[in-house]
Design goal:
Strands 1, 2, 3, 4, 5, 6, 7, 8 and 9 form a 9-stranded mixed β-sheet that branches. With 369 residues, the protein is of the alpha+beta class. It is globular, with a radius of gyration of 19 Å. The protein contains 12 helices and 16 strands. 33% of the residues lie in helices and 27% in strands. Helix 4 packs across helix 5.
């Protein structure tokens, strides 16, 4: 059944999206401001479930591409958000009927809300990942043979382009070069899908899940309960580590925020231990004293120790007291084809995928290789 996103939902939705974004997806505060502005100017957005999308619908994803660290200072406008959608609709020669999220994480779950409001189109309660990943081809639609191109991109200066590429990896490579030249942050629209394709390839219920997580954190704090435990319960995950951030190495290269964070244990049991998080926009590897605990594609999430608020990779700072949790990804990410796309080996880490519960996808990783 369809429902409506109002300005009252944005805060919780953005907070929940920042949790699922595993440190990436862009600043949730910026995304929330943009979505709230669009809703104030253009009215509430109708959200359709996947079951309600007509078979012959024209569905486009809308997102920010680039380094989250850049977007903190390079704020997008509504005109910048909708320009790629207009360009792609013109290129396709068909009216766009629905907007969807490419990923459910940080700003990339709220930018589509802004686009849907400004364009007067329904938004689908689904996304292409169930989390956030750093590269454009790293979506479930890729596994279903759905092409990212034609893909439109635009910047704050009014430059707009449309790419037609041979596969989704080439879309990423070419668009990333354009993104870097255009200031390391652009708005994009792509992955044109029919309703039937969207039903098969997307993760259902993503936006409702974001709101549930955000409200859960808010409610736990109001009840004087532990918001981190509440989030773990809602995600079906587990807590990995608690401690103090003692070092962050971070740099923006090739349109990504890459780096490592080191967290020293908080209590007597963990005090001799150190957790290391490796990230490329999103957290990819969690290790304690050199022992791998969890890797991509499962979720690695950093929360503020007491408030339970999510901390993005660009917001990690020395001295923060944090708790690190993990949660399962969509099961489709653990197929051999998916691990070849988003597993540790793709990012240059010589180890099998470790799931949130400690089990290892060694056999599947070998098959993917």
């Amino acid at each position: 059944m369809s429902w409506t996103i109002t300005p009252d939902d944005i805060h919780d939705l953005a907070r929940g999206a920042a949790v699922l974004g595993t440190g990436g997806g862009g600043d949730p505060y910026i995304g929330a401001l943009l979505a709230a502005q669009a809703l104030a100017e253009h009215g509430d957005v109708t959200v359709a479930t996947l079951d309600e999308v007509p078979a012959d619908a024209v569905v486009l994803t809308v997102a920010m591409m680039g380094a989250p660290t850049v977007m903190v200072e390079k704020l997008p406008s509504l005109d910048e958000v909708v320009a790629p959608v207009h360009a792609l609709g013109t290129h396709l020669g068909r009216p766009v009927t629905h907007i969807a999220c490419a990923e459910v994480g940080g700003v990339n779950s709220t930018i589509p809300i802004a686009a849907a409001a400004a364009l007067g189109l329904p938004l689908i309660d689904a996304d292409g990942m169930g989390r956030a990943f750093p590269e454009l081809q790293m979506v479930l639609p890729t596994l279903y043979g759905i092409t990212a191109s034609p893909l439109a991109f635009g910047d704050e200066k009014g430059n707009v382009g449309v790419l037609q590429t041979v596969d989704n990896s080439w879309t990423e490579r070419i668009a990333r070069v354009a993104c870097v030249e255009m200031g390391c942050s652009v708005m994009i629209s792509g992955f044109p899908m029919s309703g039937d394709q969207a039903r098969a390839a997307l993760v259902p219920g993503s936006l409702a899940h974001c709101i549930e997580i955000g409200r859960g954190i808010t409610a736990a704090r109001a009840e004087k309960a532990d918001p981190v435990e509440r989030t773990v319960d809602l995600l079906g995950g587990r807590e990995l580590f608690a401690g103090k951030v003692v070092d962050v190495e971070r740099g923006t290269t090739a349109g990504f925020a890459r780096g490592r964070a080191r967290i020293d244990g908080a209590d007597a049991a963990q005090a001799p231990s150190t957790m290391t998080l490796s990230f490329q926009n999103e957290h990819l590897i969690a290790e304690v004293d050199g022992r791998t605990l969890v890797t991509t594609p499962d979720l690695i999430i950093v929360l503020e120790h007491d408030s339970g608020l999510p901390i993005t990779t660009e917001a990690l700072r020395y001295g923060q007291r944090v708790r690190v949790i993990s949660a399962p990804s969509d099961e489709r990410w653990h197929s051999p084809e998916a691990l070849a796309l988003v597993g540790p080996a793709y990012f240059g880490y010589d180890r099998p995928a470790h799931r949130f519960d400690g089990t290892v996808d060694a056999d599947l990783e070998e098959a993917a290789a």
